[in-house]
Amino acid sequence: MSRFYRGIFIVWVALRYGLDEMVLTSFKKPWLGVLARIVSVGRNLDAPRGQRLREALERLGPIFVKFGQVLSTRRDLLPPDIADELAFLQDRVPPFASSIAIATIERAFRRPVGDIFVQFDETPVASASIAQVHFGKVRLRDGTLRDVAVKVLRPNMRGIIEKDLALMAMMAGWLESLSADGKRLKPREVIGEFDKYLHDELDLVREAANAAQLRRNMVKLELVMIPEMFWDFCHPEVMVMERMTGVPISQLDRIRAAGVDIPKLARDGVTIFFTQVFRDGFFHADMHPGNIQVSVEPATFGRYISLDFGIIGTLTESDKEYLAQNFVAFFRRDYKRVAELHLESGWVPESTRIDELEGAIRSVCEPYFDRPLREISLGMVLMRLFQASRRFHVEIQPQLVLLQKTLLNIEGLGRQLDPELDLWATAKPFLEKWMVDQIGPRKFFEQLKAEAPRYAKLLPQLPRLLHGYLENRPADHRRELMELLAAQKRTNKLLQAIVYGGIGFVLGLLAMQFLLRVRLF
Q: Which one of 279, 376, 399, 479 has the minimum C-beta count within 10 Å?
């Protein structure tokens, strides 16, 4: 019943804010136009359509706000008035009362807010769909006074999210039962992935741990700054972190006036994304402009500042290798290899003809190469790939949904910063190096080093195991000993072959690495 009432509420909000007339009047069917006029009776639709859409999403809650945040980055797909309004969802969601924030902090730490913070600003500086942020000062254990940002969870969020997710799961079940395409898209598995990530976002200690891991991963790259977490002041409902000072990425005029190299900033954003995805398999999956700033301080001038780590994507080694091979094959326009990878990964049935799938992929991707980013719509490419995939029964992989969403965010950010940016040319050198590292001698020795502790533990036990084996076979002692000596000779020869073969293998890898750098790409 709760899902039924929530569904009724969603329909009511859509009608109340006139969202139906944005859709129904765009169709040419006469009866749809009549229906649009009927449901418009008695409503005040004087506000601009973009404002009404934004207010409706805010009224419907956090999941719908996040949907609006993703849409706001796609100015190539939206009219300017709607894109401008949805941009307010990134960090200007209406805040909740400061008294509630203070009560949450005091309940979490069981102390008055004045005993926790040297200073606490009751006016929030940012408000989003899940939490809002206040500035303050804390004194650490070593006596250091630090400026901090205090993130406080919105009240009663868990119940709201669970109702929406239950409704979405029910609708996904309907979709799967009504269409073959619905089954192929695996909507229930996709919603299950979002369910996991949204519940993770409700635990601010988990978010702090995500930030700490990203900070360690990115410290040597020197392109992005991640705030330090202060663990003595972190709780599932409250997170205290280093206060970062920067200019929001959406304020391009201020960034440009400060002297930041905008094209370099765009290229750095692509480098950060591919580093997190392919090197670490641990990437920021909520990279809308409201979560990104740029430092204009002298010591860190031109670096990104990343915020809000509630949604993090992870990839396995097999996922990374598959994706990297796909990207490299795309950059080389090797559409046959892309088709083969789909077959090898099990994304398409074994009966699929490679040449037909290759031709379909070529027809989608070939027109978009050698163009600047302003002439490429990744959303359009994905849509055409989706249309082509229906013919070959390609199955959508739920574990890659967050990666697809983040890639759309990156495209929107790149388009905003530098319309001339060539996304493919920027990413290609990184992926070339990554592929060489994956099959080169460095990777071989890293794997050998990782396995070494297991063999180091096993080898000292061999004499004892051998002695125990001989003790248990006294009658065959001499014969077993002779066989053991013969086996030892064979082992020595084998070890010699392994050593010489290993030297030859390393030399071959070095030669392969050289050829890859010179000829392959």
A: 479
